Amino acid sequence: MDPHFTLEVEAVRVADIADKSAALRFLAQVCGETYGLDADQVEQALLEREALGSTGFGNGVALPHARLAGIQKPLAALVRIERPIDFEAADGLPVELACALLSPENAGATHLHALAALSRMMRDEQLRARLSAATDVEAIYGIVTNGQDRDAA
């Protein structure tokens, strides 16, 4: 597992999501359920960050992120979107993988390291292809955690 952030298997989902705002709401709910956070607070934090500019990373990936009071370490949630959606990504491509990252409120470098680790992982073309082809949560979680282990070696 990546030492920069925590991703629980319960925070990995496959879902049919209509649009960007629904994706942010869904990720906030997943974070709330998995990590015991207030989903409305998470959604608001993600929306505030998104208002600064799209977190559509490119190549079908979005990395919405925010800093949040009351958490001790970076936490992640990942959803593979069944029918890719517009996320206003820099490259204009629709998004099928959205990975939310929540970091402690005052986690400057910690947040940046976690975001960089996710970014590196999602730039891996083979990993993205395997995630796109995965049909269930356990397979997606295995791909992500094995990819993290490989990168750490």
User: Beta fraction of the residues?
Assistant: 25-35%
* Count of separate DSSP helical elements: 5
CATH topology category name = Mannitol-specific EII, Chain A
Fraction of residues in H or I helices: 40-55%
Structural class: alpha/beta
Tell me how many strands there are.
6
- How does the major sheet shape up? 6 strands, mixed
Number of domains: 1
Report how far the terminal alpha carbons are from each other. Answer: 11 Å
Helix/strand order, N-terminal first: EHHEEEEEHHH
Mean pLDDT: 92
Q: Which segments are poorly predicted (pLDDT under 50) over 5 or more consecutive residues?
A: 149-153
What does this entry look like structurally?
The protein has 153 residues and is α/β, with parallel strands linked by helices. The protein has one domain (6-152): Mannitol-specific EII, Chain A. Helix content is 46%, strand content 26%. It has 5 helices and 6 strands; from the N terminus they run βααβββββααα. It has helices at residues 20-35, 39-51, 108-123, 125-133, 137-152; strands at residues 6-15, 56-58, 61-62, 65-68, 75-85, 95-104. Strands 1, 2, 3, 4, 5 and 6 form a 6-stranded mixed beta sheet that branches. A hairpin with a 2-residue loop joins β2 (56-58) and β3. α1 crosses α2.
